[in-house]
């Protein structure tokens, strides 16, 4: 027998349909989502017999692509599902052997088979895309409640300076000394060089100072009189006079 050469025979490859790549939904995809779709397309049989049963775990896709975290790969799967390129036929679950089973997908650009084995035409949901861009809801829910992220480009500029008016320190707040003490209010936390007039009325302060000065003057005069009286009763000599052989002289 003569061997017949098969011209144009290619090694195993992944087909990409041109009409799919020319659709607006494909052009709206991110490059990560496109790479994930090509990876899923590589595990679809040429006769589409396993369409609806194609599955790849996040770790397997990361190993196939050589990059991408599990979180980013999950976001790319959700993006493909949003634009209508894939449809989930069964969710992930725990197998009888204790190992997790990844979700199963159906590629909408290829025909599939129902449970009875009947051929089902390709649905191609991506051609009926409504134009709404994909936003990852799971990523947005990770932002804490009440937190407003910076818009892009604003963090590079100079910070906005806001002048805060000087107000009194609230009651119970411990910080630097207050700068606005009410009239007649006495506090232990005062300014470094306080004035007496700032803590009371001028006439009251003058009266208090007059009383204090009068008391001090009276104290000084009484102390001087007491010292003179004590000095008058002190003897001239503390040595007995009979030691020197003479009588003591009476004080004048």
Characterization of the model:
This protein has 252 residues and is mainly α. It has 2 domains: 18-140, Orthogonal Bundle (Arc Repressor Mutant, subunit A), CATH 1.10.10; 180-243. It has helices at residues 18-21, 24-28, 31-41, 58-65, 70-83, 137-140, 202-232, and strands at 86-90, 93-94, 100-101, 104-107, 112-113, 119-120. The strands form 3 sheets. A two-stranded antiparallel ribbon has the order 1-4. A two-stranded antiparallel sheet has the order 2-3.
List keywords for this structure.
two-stranded antiparallel ribbon, 252 residues, mainly alpha, rod-shaped
Topology:
Blueprint lengths: L17 H4 L2 H5 L2 H11 L16 H8 L4 H14 L2 E5 L2 E2 L5 E2 L2 E4 L4 E2 L5 E2 L16 H4 L61 H31 L20
Helix pairs in contact: 3-5
Number of helices: 7
What count of structural domains?
2
Care to count the β-strands?
6
**Major sheet: size, sense and barrel closure?**
2 strands, antiparallel
- CATH architecture type of the largest domain: Orthogonal Bundle
Radius of gyration: 50 Å
Structural class: mainly alpha
Oligomer: single chain
Tell me roughly what share of residues is in helical segments. 25-40%
CA-CA gap between termini:
170 Å
Average pLDDT value? 77
